[in-house]
Structures are given as structure tokens and as C-alpha cells.
């Protein structure tokens, strides 16, 4: 029993060891034979580089206007898209009127209440007016009645039935009534005038409130709104930004646009790194630009510079004939070209850039070192970080970016067709 | 030509042995006998050589008999007490184990503070015993299994005690095995260099510096005069040893392996 | 009582002899943290096979050297078989004064320490390189060559061939067999076990080569594992023990497989001797 168990343990242990050995051999074969292949080159002898830097810019207009909502808005339809150029008078936004007025918005309710108050006031005034007219009418009737009574009394006097005093008193009361009637009439006249004025006033107040309820009227920004809740602009504009949701809170930007009635409003804006900016501005290299596919290059003049911590914006002015060719928001490309000597120039295919292949960015270059080890002679890669100084057509000028990066000199062997798959200390096989 | 037809079997071996060992050795003697200074005097004045000879002599005279004795005792116990198969396997196993594998264990033992006071030579001796008793054990085991029990029983019946039986009867009977064991142990004692190298490196402590270490260092330097002188001395020594062993073997009767 | 002391004695002997091996095996299952501890510890705290994983997957240069060891051992084994069998056959059959003297010389060479035989080897290689232009140093052939002609095999096999009963030989001769046929069909089958034992001995001997590689090889990529383990102890102790166990493994395995055949051979020798 014991020996049987021991034998089994021993057997398991031996199988385990055999498995380890087999795994070891397998991984050895893998390490030895499965290696990436690279071609080896050396840095270039000729160290002049025609340095070309490319960057992009946009056509912009002189002025950009931003409009914010002054209250909560309910939008039914957004009629434009951003980056669109709209003709004057086009619809921008249509408001949802049903929700806009029947809302539970307190301000709207208040406005409506105010309107109601005004309506009530109007009614009050009207009833006052009616009262006044009624009293005038009553005065007239009273006077007419007194007058009839005087006439019937004067008939009686002439027949010797009533005394002269009775006739005179009847005459006096008729006279009084006539005066009060005339007074009533005149006060009615003035009251009617006042009434008309009040009515005007109230009506205009109501109109204003209605206007507030239905939309904003903003004179400076040239946005007009009509009674159906449609906004439109009276200029030709380029929509930089338009809100994309249906409910806008107070204070949110609704729309941002640039006016581009004519090409004289247009400029070209470009973002440049410091080095390139120095080259253009200080060394006065020529700048060429072209639009997308057009091959022809035009030269530009610098109009103004805006400096930011990490980049500069150059505003180039467009010559008149150029202005005809561009539209606002066009993307254009620039190139700055120069020829310079660099200490270390390698083939472009040996450089793996971090980000874009342009000067100022960092890149990796893999040098090949060989070493004698237990597995024989092995070649392995050494990764170095370099800063791209200049980019040519097929070549790149670099310099070591950190103090511990190996310098590339005439005798270094560099891995060509380097790709992102290569890593530091990776074993490689060299093919010619 | 029948006499020479057998020659072809030994030809490659002779060729190899001669060319690889004999001829160069003889040629190399010129370094010893025709060198500028008398290299024999040189070598005897070399302190390292003296120490290594002393160490080797002590080592061999102490531990070879020990290996033989312990091997015999263990074989005896195994045979008489019918010790299990596991014991046999355990004793024999160390001879198969490579020196490098167990060097870890011995290194740690040697480095641990418990053994600082013990002479380095004894540590090496212990390691030698551990790795080589297997050989003597096997030899004696075979011999013991072979023996003719009748003589022993006769001795017992005659009334001699166990110890006397062993010494006066058994040992002479096994003298052939004894000789073989001594030869094998001598052979292995010269192989102790492997263990020493694996455990202590090329420059061991002076107390365990033996002649192979000396020769090895000289070989690396390729200083051939002292090297050949030392080799010659060692050679002579072994020659004498072999001579004595064989003669005593012949003296103790029974046909020799030769 | 006697049984108990016997068992105790057996246990004692077993432990003393197996202890270093057990120590190595148990250390191979320790992880790096425990190994840095310089005290002598026996049982691993946590049983893990991290060492084996590291050695097989990450640091598998070891296996390249394993192949080196295997190549050298196999080369010597093959060569010795061819050379020693022939020579032993000669010595066992031919009984003349010359052969006795020759055999004495052979025994003498067998006992020489390696350093002494290495010297003529080195000198020989030097002159070969100089006069024939063949590069021998730093090749594995340089290590295999002396091993092939080691006289231990001849010594060992001659003893065994001689123990074969003369009758076999004479019967075969009467049947008209030539020397070669006798060798192949009579002597070899008879001494299968002895040859197996010799193979084991040669295997053990050459698996464990240390002196020759140091002298003949200079680049690490050609070294056998026996040398590499020494450097491994100081540089990468984490995998040293796993490497040791893997290195011991073939020898012990072969030994265990052959042990039955060895037993038979031992009995046969004892039978013949009787």
C-alpha cells in the first residue's frame, strides 16, 4: 500500500517534470524561431532635408455673434444645421406655440393674469362709460319731462287756473334740469375721450404682454420673431452652432453665427506650433496655401496674430481675387517649405511617430544591437525616443529627446519599415 | 592471419587512446625534462602544490578506507538484517545524482554558521562519502550475495564469535571485492573535484585545495612546465598505488580480475 | 524489539542518503521570497510551481543548454558503445602477454584523474588547430572525443565478457561462426544487462561533465547544464532548484527503469561467481 502510493506519487512527479521539459522546449522553439523580421539600414549620408510643414486652417468671418435664450423656450422645429450658410430671411427656429402659451411657466401665467387684469379694467371702463351714458340719458329724460310739465302748466296759466308762481317754479326746475343735462353731456364728452385714451393704453399694454408671451423681439441681433413663433435673420450668415434640443433653458446659447454678407468679411485662421510660427514670422518663410484638391499654391500675407499658451493663431488676409474662391468654413491647407542641414537624417520608413509625422512631435526609432548569449548570437531592438526636427518627402531629421537615448551616428544600424508592432528589447531576425 | 583478425576490434580504441592520451602525454614530457629551469624543483617550491598534495594525501588516506568500511558495513547490515529494498535504493541513488543538482544543498549547509568550525576538508570528505558509498555498497552487496555460506556456518559451529568470524574469515573471502572497492573509491576520490567545483568554485578554501584544483588552475593558465611536472608526480603516485593494491590482492589469494 | 531497531536503522540510512535530494526537490517548490531567506529550511511554506513555470516559459535558455548536455552525453554514449565493446571483446578473447600488458595500460589510464588526461587533449587540439586548421576548441566535439575513448567501458565490459561461460563461445565456434557473428549473436545478447549498466554509468558520468566543458568550451551557449547551474545559483536563484530537479530527473528516471535489470544482473553475477 505504502509503496504503491509512493510509486504513484513518483510517477505523477515524473510526468510533471516531463511536461515542464516539453513546455520548456516548446517555448524555446517559439522564442528562437518566431521573431519579427526587419531590414537594416543606416542613417543617411546626405543630411540636407527639404523641410515641409503642413498645417490646416479654416476660412472664418470677422465677427461671430452668440445669442442666448432669455427664458425657457419650447422649440418645435430647428430649420438649420450648423456649418450651414443661410440666406437672409430664412427660418431659423420655429417655436412650439401650443406649449409655449399653455405652459405652466409662472411667468407666462403671470403675463396672462396681467392681460386678464387689463381686460377686466377695460370692461370696467366700458361699464363706467355705459353708466355715464345712461345717466346722461336719464338727465335728458328728466329735462324733457320737466319741459312738458312747463308747457302744460303754461297752458293752464293762460286759462287762469294756476298762478304765475307755479308757472315760474316749473320753469326754474325745467331750467335746472336742462343745465344738469348739459353738464352731463359735457362730462360725457370728456369722459369719452379719457375712455378712448385708456382703452388705447390698455390695448397697447396687452399687445406688449402678448408679444412677450409669444417670443422675443431683439433689435440688436437682428433676429426677428413673428406671431407664429418663427425666428429668422435678416442677414446672410454662417451658422457656427445651433442648439439641437427641443427645450432650451434660460441662459443657454441658442445659436452662434457669423455674418458673411460679402467676402470682405472673410479671413483665414490657422493654428500653428511655435516652431512653425517662428519660421513663418521671424524667418519669413513663404507660406503657400491651397484648397483641398487644387494644386495651385498662392502666397499669403499675415494680417494679425493671436497668441495662446500652446499655439498661435495667424490670421491671413485674402487678396480680393482669392476671396472669390473661398467660402466661409472651408478647410484649407498650408505649407511652409525650407531647406536645411540636419545632423541626423534617417529614412522616413524607419520612424514611428507618436501622433502625426510633423516636426515637434516625438517618434521612436529602433536601433539593432547584437549580443552573444546562451541562445547564440541574437539581434535585439533598442527603442529610442527622438524628436522630429523636420519632415521631408522620404526622410526625417531627428534628434535624441532624452539624455539616455542613444545617439544615432554613421554606424548605427536602424530597423527599417519600423512599425508600431516593434518593441524595446524585442528579438528580431534581420533580412536583407 | 587469424592471430591478427581480432585486432580490428580494438583498433579504434587503441587509436583513440593513443592519440588522445598517450602520444601527446609523451610529447609533453619535453616541457618537464627539457625546460629551462628544473621544473621539478620549481614545483616543489610552489606552496600551492605542497598544500594540495598534503590535502589530497590526507583526504585519500582518511576517506577511502572510510568509504570502503562504511560500504561494507551497510552491505553487511542490508544482507544480514534483510533491510528492505528502499534502503538499497536510497544508498545507491546518490551516485546517480549530478553534482550540480545537489550543490545547492551543500552550499547552504557549508555556508550555514553551524559548520564554520569544521575543517573544510571534512565537509568535502562527507560529501565524497555521500556520493560514493553507493559504489562500494553495490560491490560488497554482490560479493555478499555470492558468498559461500558453508564456511561461515562451519566457523560458527566451531564456536568462534561473530566479530572473529568477520575478520578472519569473511574479509579474506571477499578480498576480491575489497580490492575492487578500493580501486573504485580511489577513482571516485579523484572525481571529487566536481563536487568541490560545483559547491565552492574554482578557488576553494586552502584546506580543501586538492591536487586536481591545482592542476586545473595550472591548466587554465596553460603553464605547461609546472602542469606536466605535477601530472608526472601524480602519475607516479597512482602507478605506485595501483602496484601495491594489485600485489596485495594477489597476496590475498583468489584469482584477480586481471 | 529487533524489528523496531531494524526499522529505525533503515529509516536512518534512508534519510541520511536521500536528504540532499529531498531538500533540492522541496526547494524547487518554494517561491522566490522564501529562497532569499538564507536560513536552512526544509519544508516549503507555500507549495507552488512558480519556479517550474518561470524556467519553462520565461527563462528557457536553460533548455538550450539541456539540449547541449543531451547531445554531449548521447555522443559519448554512442561512441563508447562502438569503441569499448570491440576492445572488451578483444581483451576477453585474446589471451596473450601483449594483451595483458595492454590491459594493464588501459586500467592505468582509467584511474588517471581527468586533469592529467585533459592536458594531452588540449595539446593535441592546439596542434591540430595549428597544423590542420580545424577549429576544435569551443565545439562540443572537443568534449565528446575524449569521453568516447575513456577506458572505463573497456575495463567494465571485459570483466563481464570474461564471466561468460567458455562453453558458449566454443559451441559457437564449432558451429562455424566468425568472430563478428559471435560478438553480435552470442556475447552481446548475453551481456545485455551489463551493457545496460555500463550505459547507465556512462550516462551518469557524462551528464555530470564539469572539467572538460570548462577547459574546452568558452561560450556560454555551448555549455552543458552542469556548469550553467553553478552560475545560476548566484544569478537567478529562483530557478536554480527547479533547474536542479530537472537536471536530476533523467538520471534518476533511467536509473529507476533499469534497476530491475540491475537486480537481475547482480543475481547473474552472483550465480556465475558461485
What does this structure look like?
The complex is a heterotrimer of chains A (432), B (258) and C (274). Chain A has helices spanning 2-33, 97-101, 106-158, 164-214, 274-281, 320-323; strands at 37-41, 48-61, 64-68, 73-78, 85-86, 91-95, 223-225, 230-233, 237-242, 247-248, 253-259, 266-272, 287-290, 298-299, 301-307, 312-317, 331-341, 345-347, 351-353, 362-373, 376-391, 395-400, 414-416, 427-431. Chain A is α+β, with helices and mostly antiparallel strands and 432 residues long. Among the domains of chain A are: 33-49 and 342-431, no CATH class; 106-214. In chain A, the strands form four sheets. In chain A, strands 1, 18, 19, 20, 21, 22, 23 and 24 form an eight-stranded mixed sheet that branches. The longest helix of chain A has 53 residues, at 106-158. The radius of gyration of chain A is 47 Å and the shape is elongated. Chain A starts with a helix and ends with a strand. With 258 residues, chain B is mainly α. Chain B has one domain (47-251): MetI-like fold (Orthogonal Bundle). Chain B is built from 13 helices and no strands. Chain C is mainly α and 274 residues long. Chain C has two domains: 1-48, no CATH class; 60-273, MetI-like (MetI-like fold, Orthogonal Bundle), CATH 1.10.3720.10. Chain C is built from 14 helices and no strands. Chain C starts with a helix and ends with a helix. The model of chain C has no long low-confidence stretch (mean pLDDT 80). Classes of the chains: A alpha+beta (432), B mainly alpha (258), C mainly alpha (274). Chain A binds chain C through residues 10, 14, 16-17, 20-21, 23-25, 27-28, 31, 372-376, and chain C through 52, 55-57, 60-66, 219-221, 223, 228, 242, 245-246, 249, 253, 256. Chain C: Keywords: Cell membrane, Membrane, Transmembrane, Transmembrane helix, Transport. Chain C: It is a multi-pass membrane protein. Chain C: It is found in: Cell membrane. Chain C: Belongs to the binding-protein-dependent transport system permease family. Chain C: Pfam families: BPD_transp_1.
How are the SSEs placed, and which strands pair?
The complex is a heterotrimer of chains A (432), B (258) and C (274).
Chain A: H1 2-33, E1 37-41, E2 48-61, E3 64-68, E4 73-78, E5 85-86, E6 91-95, H2 97-101, H3 106-158, H4 164-214, E7 223-225, E8 230-233, E9 237-242, E10 247-248, E11 253-259, E12 266-272, H5 274-281, E13 287-290, E14 298-299, E15 301-307, E16 312-317, H6 320-323, E17 331-341, E18 345-347, E19 351-353, E20 362-373, E21 376-391, E22 395-400, E23 414-416, E24 427-431
Parallel strand pairs in A: 1-24
Antiparallel strand pairs in A: 1-23, 2-12, 2-17, 3-11, 4-6, 4-10, 5-9, 6-8, 7-8, 9-11, 12-16, 13-14, 13-17, 15-16, 18-22, 19-20, 20-21, 21-22, 21-24
Chain B: H1 2-5, H2 7-33, H3 39-45, H4 47-80, H5 85-96, H6 99-111, H7 120-146, H8 149-158, H9 162-173, H10 175-190, H11 192-200, H12 211-221, H13 224-251
Chain C: H1 2-28, H2 32-36, H3 50-58, H4 61-93, H5 97-111, H6 114-132, H7 140-148, H8 152-163, H9 166-174, H10 179-190, H11 192-207, H12 211-216, H13 225-235, H14 237-273
